[in-house]
Design goal:
Shape: globular
Number of strands: 11
Organism: Podospora pseudoanserina
Keywords: Membrane, Transmembrane, Transmembrane helix
Distance between the termini: 26 Å
Largest sheet: 8 strands, parallel, barrel
Radius of gyration: 19 Å
Number of helices: 11
Strand order of the largest sheet: 1-2-6-7-8-9-10-11
Helix content: 25-40%
Protein name: Coagulation factor 5/8 type domain-containing protein
Strand content: 15-25%
Oligomer: single chain
């Protein structure tokens, strides 16, 4: 992913090295069209019977994800909640040098917001209510993540460290509670420091988060992170439980089946929707269906996803068209 430069944020960079290339070239934009029960006498026994079934299905559910690049206060959250997605990843969260956490709006006429400081949520009630609403009411969303780069993580893990009394720990704890978050996504694309990445992931696990990654290259680094964070853990207990693989721009030729074999866990390939930033990497819903279906037939995937909601709204595309692709391939 890319993020504009600004105070307190880092620019993400690309290079031309591709890991596990696919024989299928990236899609080329051609058009801007959207391609767009019977009652039981004993409810207690019924609940006891159903719980393990529901829990098993929750564990087995395929991932249908979308990254939220647009300011969540201005995006079409109703469409996001009802178009087939079950995982939303809020992009643009960053850590300042003192351990405070920022939410970068990435949207014209929106302002960046400091959301956690001194171990307290400070982002305002309106933002917290909007974020929490993504998993409540009429919604298919069951998991909410924030995505961040690795800026300042290494220094803060070194001093003052990842302990429960440190600003980093307390701020992520406060944010989890305020926003009802499930996971933190590490979108490191430049630093790749193994020790601090693992220590940070373990800190998040202590707080109650799951930890996810969004690689486009440097597969060996991510394998090392995954192995250390999940060492000795059963599959259902994994700390690093999802891989969102970028299959556009710098990762345009990434082959998800190859990454799955190398990492030893299933991945969720990400496709970029039609956009006017780098149109050559944009895919219609129909093109996304073709690519995801081919990969899924080669090697069963964990699910699929998109980068990003901002372009869907800007280009007048259909959330439902893109969501239906995921729902039909990854029910």
């Amino acid at each position: 992913m890319e993020q504009d430069n600004g105070a307190g944020r880092a620019a993400f960079s690309w290079n031309s090295r591709y890991i596990f290339q696919s024989s299928t070239p990236p899609p080329i934009q051609i058009t801007h069209s959207t391609a767009h029960h019977a009652k039981k006498k004993n409810p207690t026994m019924r609940s006891l019977f159903l719980f393990p079934i529901i829990w098993h299905l929750a564990l087995a559910a395929s991932v249908r994800s979308i990254f939220l690049f647009k300011d969540v206060m201005k995006s079409n959250t109703t469409a996001l909640k009802t178009s087939g997605f079950n995982t939303l990843i809020m992009f643009g969260v960053g850590i300042l040098s003192n351990g405070d956490i920022m939410y970068y709006s990435n949207t014209p006429e929106s302002q960046d917001v400091r959301i956690a400081s001194g171990g307290v949520y400070v982002g305002g009630d309106a933002l917290a209510q909007k974020v929490r609403s993504l998993k409540t009411g009429e919604t298919g969303v069951t998991r909410l993540e924030i995505s961040m780069n690795a800026q300042n993580v290494r220094n803060l893990i070194m001093t003052p460290g990842p302990g429960p009394e440190t600003p980093l720990f307390r701020n992520f704890q406060a944010l989890k509670e305020a926003w009802t978050l499930d996971a933190v996504n590490n979108d490191d694309e430049s630093i790749y420091d193994l020790n601090s990445s693992v220590a940070f992931g373990r800190m998040l696990g202590q707080i109650g988060y799951k930890y996810t990654i969004a690689p486009y290259t440097n597969a060996q680094f991510w394998l090392n992170v995954k192995n250390q964070l999940n060492q000795g853990l059963k599959e259902q207990d994994r700390l690093l439980d999802r891989v969102y693989l970028q299959c556009y721009d710098g990762g345009a030729y990434n082959n998800p089946p190859g990454w799955q074999t190398f990492l030893g866990m299933k991945v969720v390939p990400l496709i970029w929707v039609i956009n006017d930033s780098k149109p050559v990497y944009g895919a219609t819903a129909a093109q996304a269906r073709t690519r995801l279906t081919q990969w899924h037939q080669q090697s069963t995937l964990a699910g699929g996803g998109y980068w990003n909601d901002y372009d869907i709204e800007k280009m007048g595309l259909s959330y439902r068209d893109y969501g239906n692709v995921l729902a039909s391939i990854f029910p």
